[in-house]
Amino acid sequence: MHIHILGICGTFMGGLALLARELGMTVSGSDANVYPPMSDQLAAAGINVSEGYEPKYLQPEPDLVVMGNAMTRGNPAVEYVLNKGLPYVSGPQWLSQHVLQGRWVLAVSGTHGKTTTSSLLAWILEHAGMSPGFLIGGVPDNFGETARLGKTPFFVIEADEYDTAFFDKRSKFVHYLARTLVINNLEFDHADIFDDLAAIQKQFHHLIRTVPSEGLIISPQEKAIEQVLAMGCWTPRQSLGNESDWQATLLKNDGSEFEVSFAGKTGTVNWSMLGQHNVNNALAAIAAAHHVGVTVAHACEALSAFAGVKRRLELRGEVDNIRVYDDFAHHPTAIATTIAGLRAKIGNKKLVAVLEPRSNTMKMGVHQDALAQSLIQADRVLLLQDSDLKWSLKQVTDELGDHVSVFDSIDTIVKTLQTEAQQGDEIVVMSNGGFGGIHQRILDALEQR
């Protein structure tokens, strides 16, 4: 069977391509931007990728076209598929039909922490000898790949609430047939497709409706989640957090060591990850793994050998005792927790935050009132005022003071850091995009001075 994937270089669609190739299918694809790391993974798998959406890439005609959710009416490839009557399907629906049917799906959902929690969960199962399949929106260092079929019924998936396709406006995760469902947290995000938090909660309730009564829902006792569960829940639930079923007690303030307890069973995690948010992610992953038979002690042992995830407070390099990190944070809550985790580790060292407010929600100004407070623990803040940003970042400087600067180019940010950075500084760069390769440019500039 030959499938052609439109939008193949996105993390989800690229992972889907790898799974299809592993199933023995002939896979090709096209995308507007073909770039690493996904382009490298696809090339290594022998998958032909074309740049752009020319109809000629659909000739000879494939057996099936799989549409990414970035595809819209008016796209030349989409119009060709519709006009020619070629069979097509969304990515989540293809995944449901060809990979997830008959599997024990462990789905990780929520506004924050999905990639990390999915990676933790997959690694716990792997460490337990359960050889799970997975599809994750990032690259776990323990695996070095975003997706694989696995050798057992267990399949871990990052369950995204973004819409499925231009012809299916349900959230992706309703297709995933979850038996074990984690809901990490729930806040307003994706303002480009959701009007308000209630609209997101409605989609999460659609997800809850799909979980069998013999399954399990795992979540903290947060107000927004409790409201969703109150709409109707037919599945047992275990809670996370203080005075809950699953609890984590910090043994070190930076979150690098903590104790886990559940129903009288305990275990200790001593690992390289930082921050309360990652402790929360770990607790959810341990609970989900326990549902499929992994003991608390074994799960904690696995996490002590967890190597991290690309772009989740990833150390990109060190020059003259100045460290540069890359982090995917782009929502005020994620920005605040990333900075808090690093602050807990480094103590009084100078913490420099470099932020590109790039997400659609941030560009629309939905989070503008919360952004300043999310940066408050940083000693120095450098912000990129992109032309697509529909509001002025001067609001942040007015709120936080002279240690915050706004720039209109990446070059100027790099030159400023080249001049200002001192030995012992910790620089964390935050964006949900490539940020023009700024991480390496900063390191190169520090080397040159």
TrEMBL record:
For molecular function, the Gene Ontology terms on record are: ATP binding; UDP-N-acetylmuramate-L-alanyl-gamma-D-glutamyl-meso-2,6-diaminoheptanedioate ligase activity
- Swiss-Prot/TrEMBL keywords: ATP-binding, Cell cycle, Cell division, Cell shape, Cell wall biogenesis/degradation, Ligase, Magnesium, Nucleotide-binding, Peptidoglycan synthesis
**Which residue ranges does the record assign to the Mur ligase C-terminal domain?**
311-433
Occurrences of domain Mur ligase N-terminal catalytic (ranges): 2-100
Q: Which reaction does it catalyse?
A: UDP-N-acetyl-alpha-D-muramate + L-alanyl-gamma-D-glutamyl-meso-2,6-diaminopimelate + ATP = UDP-N-acetyl-alpha-D-muramoyl-L-alanyl-gamma-D-glutamyl-meso-2,6-diaminopimelate + ADP + phosphate + H(+)
Q: In this protein, which residues make up the domain named Mur ligase central?
A: 108-289
* Family, similarity comment: Belongs to the MurCDEF family. Mpl subfamily.
**Protein name, as recorded:** UDP-N-acetylmuramate--L-alanyl-gamma-D-glutamyl-meso-2,6-diaminoheptandioate ligase
Which source organism?
Answer: Methylophaga thiooxydans DMS010
Q: Encoded by which gene?
A: mpl
